[in-house]
């Protein structure tokens, strides 16, 4: 449970920057700020996954709410308009709390007290909202739903044709547009079909990013409830008019340790739908991305005892390979998957190994070996985007003009910020790791492994000869062409189960990484003394993209660093120290989540996606590892 007290609630500097998230396990969610303000265009009380887990749409964006007793009235909601906030519900907000199941607000003022609780329906695009009169007198609750049919990456504007169909019944209001219905069940309310537009809602976090920050929203009706002491108004917003409300029970106060809190956070990211089982890369704006899924899987699935889910994810991705590559991302409806990645497929091999290491399954292993053998064949012969094994040294090369293929994939217009063409250090660490996994799998299944063993030995010899720079004392970032920049990617080549960066050289490099790149919130993506270093991740989106991998600190890399310390130095105490403040991040941005990035310089402010799967997954995996 994550809480804001009275003082924190009424400070917009705090409550408008702390976000809550509820998910339904099929890609839909509810999300907002503790203050009640929708500070992002992605915020809403019901953001439905129309074709789970994708095609998300903001349907119920907000709810204007007022409580009155006699002549007195207070607003118990908040909306940002140009130059003003109305209602000013945050001024009456006395507490806010959230966990993985529900979010709860308590408002008090002018002798009145009301609790609002919101909970998502597991496996359904539906949300139950309950307003309970906690006061001693009879009160009148007035609600005005504010709706849209907005693809969640977009903005919404007044349209004379919206909605294209309305339906009113005593206990139900349906707003239908483009074949998609938002159904609001409001048993016990006096309903007035007061239809009209509310204009120019402002989303401050979008303004910060230099994006269009304004929406218009539509109000289909006004709902009035008379509530005696202890009585509740219950609403359900859904795509299905038969959807009953979900019970909102009492909280159980079971304090969790750091690992327990990260396991709880991991639940948000697993999605299981008829189309596929996968991992959402981050909320609110990411769907399921191949690289993010495979990096996150050991923590998100294996450390939460979801091994069967992990196997389904890996099997589903195995059916989607194209010319030896898994998708970089699954797209929205009507689009084809993107395969523009060199490392996602190699992380896929690592996730297979981790899963089989956690629980051996010969049938699954045989199926995965066939997929990996096909991947190996394509990489050896050459596949998309110049991805190919160099026969001269056995290392993997890649790159195509205007395309970014590694995890450092920022692009501003036509400018690829960190192209990293040639042979990146972590890509070849991953390539060697995959070759050794193939050798291991063949051995376990009684098949000939000589080709993979020979390929691994050639690549390892070349890695040792080419990647360490004696003058700088660390591994270079790429060879052929050479880039000697100090970056954290070398740590991945140290941390992998069969990583080739080891011994005295790795110890020396890790010492420099600790001095220059390690921060309490992640590893910097570029050394502070390097040309082009940017210590702040802020400003309009192009400015942030330019800083994305030029010094910004990434929490997920702390997991790789801690594992590298264990493998290279054998120092569990030092590995634990690197993770000391990991769970503090669970309350610094998304309450119960860990942000995508932090500033490289102190003070380190969180930014980017507030719930990032690999931030949670890698920190969980590493904490479990160092605690063993």
Structural write-up:
This protein is an alpha+beta fold. The chain has two domains: 2-238, Beta-galactosidase, Chain A, domain 5; 258-627, Glycosyltransferase, CATH 1.50.10.10. Helix content is 29%, strand content 28%. The protein is built from 16 helices and 38 strands. The strands form twelve sheets. A nine-stranded antiparallel β-sheet has the order 1-9-10-11-12-21-16-15-14. Strands 2, 3, 4, 5, 6, 13, 17 and 20 form an eight-stranded antiparallel β-sheet that branches. Strand 11 and strand 12 (126-133) form a beta hairpin. Helix 5 (290-300) runs parallel beside helix 7 (344-358). The mean pLDDT is 95.
Rough shape? Answer: elongated
Q: Strand pairing plus helix content: what structural class?
A: alpha+beta
| Overall tally of structural domains | 2
CATH architecture label of the largest domain = Alpha/alpha barrel
What count of helical segments does DSSP give? 16
Biggest sheet, in brief?
9 strands, antiparallel
Low-confidence stretches: none
Biggest sheet strand order reads 1-9-10-11-12-21-16-15-14
Q: Can you give the mean pLDDT?
A: 95
CATH topology of the largest domain: Glycosyltransferase
**Strand residue content:** 25-35%
CATH class of the largest domain: Mainly Alpha
User: Into which percent range does the helicity of residues fall?
Assistant: 25-40%
Number of strands: 38
Report how far the terminal alpha carbons are from each other: 26 Å
In angstroms, what is the radius of gyration? 26 Å
């Amino acid at each position: 449970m994550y809480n804001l007290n009275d003082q924190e609630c009424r400070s917009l500097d705090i409550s408008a920057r702390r976000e809550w998230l509820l998910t339904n396990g099929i890609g839909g969610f509810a999300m907002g700020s503790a203050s009640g303000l929708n500070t992002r265009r992605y915020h809403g009380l019901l953001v439905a996954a129309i074709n789970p887990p994708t095609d998300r749409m903001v349907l119920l964006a907000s709810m204007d709410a007022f409580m009155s007793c006699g002549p007195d009235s207070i607003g118990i909601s908040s909306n940002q308009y140009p130059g003003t906030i109305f209602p000013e519900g945050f001024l009456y907000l006395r507490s806010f709390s959230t966990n993985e199941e529900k979010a709860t607000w308590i408002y008090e003022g002018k002798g009145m007290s009301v609790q609002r609780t919101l909970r998502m329906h597991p496996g359904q695009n539906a949300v139950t909202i309950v307003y309970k009169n906690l006061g001693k007198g009879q009160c009148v609750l007035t609600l005005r739903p504010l709706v849209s049919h907005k693809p969640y990456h977009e903005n919404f504007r007044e349209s004379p044709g919206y909605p294209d169909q309305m339906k009113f019944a005593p206990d139900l209001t349906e707003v239908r547009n483009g074949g998609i219905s938002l159904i609001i069940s409001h048993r016990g309310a006096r309903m007035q079909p007061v239809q009209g537009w509310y204009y120019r809602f402002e989303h401050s976090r979008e303004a910060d990013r230099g994006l269009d920050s304004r929406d218009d929203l539509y109000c289909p009706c006004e709902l009035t409830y008379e509530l005696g002491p202890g009585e509740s108004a219950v609403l359900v917003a859904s795509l299905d008019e038969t959807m009953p409300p979900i019970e909102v029970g009492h909280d159980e106060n079971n304090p969790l340790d750091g690992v327990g809190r990260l396991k709880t956070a991991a639940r948000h990211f697993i999605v299981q739908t008829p189309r596929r089982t996968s991992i959402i890369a981050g909320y609110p704006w990411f769907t399921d991305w191949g690289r993010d899924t495979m990096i996150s899987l050991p923590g998100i699935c294996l450390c939460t005892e979801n091994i069967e889910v992990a196997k389904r994810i890996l099997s589903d991705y195995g059916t989607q390979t194209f010319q030896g590559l898994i998708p970089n991302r699954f797209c929205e409806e009507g689009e084809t998957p993107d395969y523009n990645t060199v490392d996602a497929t190699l992380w896929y091999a690592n996730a297979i190994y981790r899963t089989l290491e956690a629980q051996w399954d010969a049938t699954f292993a045989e199926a995965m070996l066939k997929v990996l053998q096909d991947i190996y064949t394509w990489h050896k012969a050459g596949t998309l985007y110049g991805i190919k094994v160099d026969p001269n040294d056995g290392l993997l090369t890649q790159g195509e003009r205007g395309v970014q293929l590694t995890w450092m994939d920022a692009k501003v217009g036509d400018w690829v910020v960190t192209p990293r063409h040639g042979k990146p250090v972590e890509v070849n660490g991953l390539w060697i790791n995959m070759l050794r996994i193939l050798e291991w799998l063949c051995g376990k299944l009684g098949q000939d492994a000589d080709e993979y063993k020979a390929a691994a030995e050639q690549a390892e010899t070349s890695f040792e000869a080419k990647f360490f720079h004696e003058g700088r004392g660390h591994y270079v970032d790429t060879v052929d062409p050479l880039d000697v920049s100090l970056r954290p990617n070398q740590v991945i080549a140290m941390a992998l189960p069969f990583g080739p960066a080891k011994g005295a050289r790795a110890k020396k490099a890790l010492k420099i990484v600790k001095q220059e790149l390690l921060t309490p919130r992640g590893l910097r993506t570029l050394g502070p003394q390097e040309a082009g270093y940017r210590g702040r991740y802020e400003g309009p989106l192009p400015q942030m993209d330019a800083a994305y991998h030029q010094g910004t600190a990434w929490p997920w890399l702390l997991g790789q660093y801690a594992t590298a310390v264990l493998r290279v130095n054998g120092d569990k105490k030092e590995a634990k120290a690197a993770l000391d403040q990991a769970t503090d991040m669970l309350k610094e941005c998304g309450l119960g989540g860990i942000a995508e990035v932090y500033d490289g310089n102190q003070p380190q402010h969180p930014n980017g996606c507030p719930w990032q799967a690999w931030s949670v997954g890698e920190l969980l995996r590493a904490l479990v590892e160092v605690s063993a």
